[in-house]
């Protein structure tokens, strides 16, 4: 795996996919964003996003990781990661909608295998087609890393359930049709959690503006449930197995977040290299200064190391190996090294890197968030230490 700002996969089929994806991102999607004035701080509406979902479905990108019977190409984890990296490296605002990360097939995750025929027909197949959107509602104000501290409850009520609670950071909530909600079973003798498909227009369910993260994106919602009735047909999987469903692919998801951060860091390094080539100081390019050369060298080395270890772990996952400890390592190293890289990128860009609206300033904030989202660096270190303790 050699270093490149525009890597070309060895596999011809994947290389063709990457080339077609780049063409769409840099051409049609870039024009769509320009024509509609879409920026990272835009309040995105369903009208903004649905055309992108359906266009990407027509192009074969939306849900491309899914099995063939669902219209996908059954990509390996490594192949999917390559596409996720390319999207992040493109700098497109709506990149999250191309494969279905934001409210689509990737957001739904692995729940298709838990769904009943009714749930597939009503919720998940329309989601795959870009006709419906979902959000995932697990986090609460006092239940983040410690998800078992959640207070949202589900009570059996005849042939259904009554849900009460307040979920936060439900990404894609502003334009979702339904939520995957995990709740504590209030009347269970032992600690028990279940997952439900909740229509967001149900009586007793309110979608409110969520907190605006430091990235400035308006993609989060709070889901407020007040004695919201959910039919038994919307129970996802078995009662009491909700956390297993919610966290069942945690290792895979942890690894698959890394290529997006790597892509963002790759773009930042590319922009910073170009800045150093074109910015002049005392009549010479910034890159002529040895201090800048060394900064860029360290940034490139960090990126190469992060990318190499991530794809090595993904290849092992594709072979069916247990990579739980490696996933913790990748999330930790990618998050910390990407943030270091962006910190240097801001420094080299000077006042432009400090200016709101500049892409480097935005990427800096995004990479700072990645050190917390999907498990803090401290949580990753805990996981690594636990894995080391059990090594032979």
How is this structure best described in words?
With 392 residues, the protein is α+β, with helices and mostly antiparallel strands. It has three domains: 90 residues, no CATH class; 109 residues, Beta Barrel (Butyryl-CoA Dehydrogenase, subunit A, domain 2); 141 residues, Up-down Bundle (Butyryl-CoA Dehydrogenase, subunit A, domain 3). It has eleven helices and ten strands. The strands form two sheets. Strands 1, 2, 3, 4, 5, 6, 7 and 8 form an eight-stranded mixed sheet that branches. A hairpin with a 7-residue loop joins strand 4 and strand 5. Helix 1 packs parallel to helix 3, helix 7 packs parallel to helix 9 and helix 9 runs antiparallel to helix 10. The model has no long low-confidence stretch (mean pLDDT 95).
């Amino acid at each position: 795996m050699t270093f490149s700002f525009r890597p070309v996969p060895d596999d011809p089929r994947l290389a063709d996919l990457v080339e077609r994806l780049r063409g769409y991102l840099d051409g049609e999607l870039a024009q769509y964003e320009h024509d509609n004035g879409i920026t990272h701080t835009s309040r995105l509406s369903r009208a903004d996003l649905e055309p992108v979902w359906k266009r990407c479905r027509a192009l074969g990108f939306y849900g491309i990781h899914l099995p063939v019977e669902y219209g996908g190409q059954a990509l390996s984890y490594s192949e999917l990661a390559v596409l996720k990296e390319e999207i992040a490296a493109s700098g497109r605002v709506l990149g999250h909608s191309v494969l279905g990360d934001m409210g689509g097939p990737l957001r739904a995750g692995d729940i298709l295998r838990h769904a009943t025929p009714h749930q597939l027909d009503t919720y998940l197949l329309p989601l795959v087609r870009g006709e419906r959107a979902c959000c995932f509602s697990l986090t609460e104000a006092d239940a983040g890393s410690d998800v078992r501290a959640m207070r949202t409850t589900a009570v059996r009520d005849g042939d259904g359930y009554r849900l009460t609670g307040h979920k936060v950071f439900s990404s894609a909530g502003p334009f979702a049709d339904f939520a995957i909600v995990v709740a504590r079973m209030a009347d269970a003798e032992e600690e028990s959690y279940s997952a439900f498909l909740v229509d967001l227009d149900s009586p007793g369910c309110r979608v409110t503006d969520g907190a605006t993260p430091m990235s400035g994106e308006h993609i989060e919602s709070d889901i407020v449930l007040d004695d919201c009735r959910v039919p038994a047909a919307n129970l996802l999987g078995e009662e009491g197995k909700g956390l297993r469903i919610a966290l069942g692919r945690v290792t895979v998801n942890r690894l698959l977040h890394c290529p997006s951060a790597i892509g963002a860091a790759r773009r930042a390094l590319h922009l910073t290299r170009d800045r150093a080539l074109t910015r002049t100081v005392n009549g010479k390019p910034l890159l002529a200064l040895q201090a800048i050369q060394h900064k860029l060298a360290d940034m490139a080395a960090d990126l190469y190391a992060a990318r190499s270890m991530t794809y090595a772990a993904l290849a092992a996952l594709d072979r069916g190996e247990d990579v739980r400890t490696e996933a913790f390592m990748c999330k930790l190293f990618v998050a910390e090294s990407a943030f270091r890289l962006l910190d240097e990128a801001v420094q080299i860009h000077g006042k432009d890197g400090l200016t709101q609206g500049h892409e480097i300033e935005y990427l800096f904030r995004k990479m700072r968030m990645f050190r917390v989202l999907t498990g803090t660096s401290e949580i990753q270190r805990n996981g690594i230490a636990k894995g080391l303790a059990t090594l032979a």
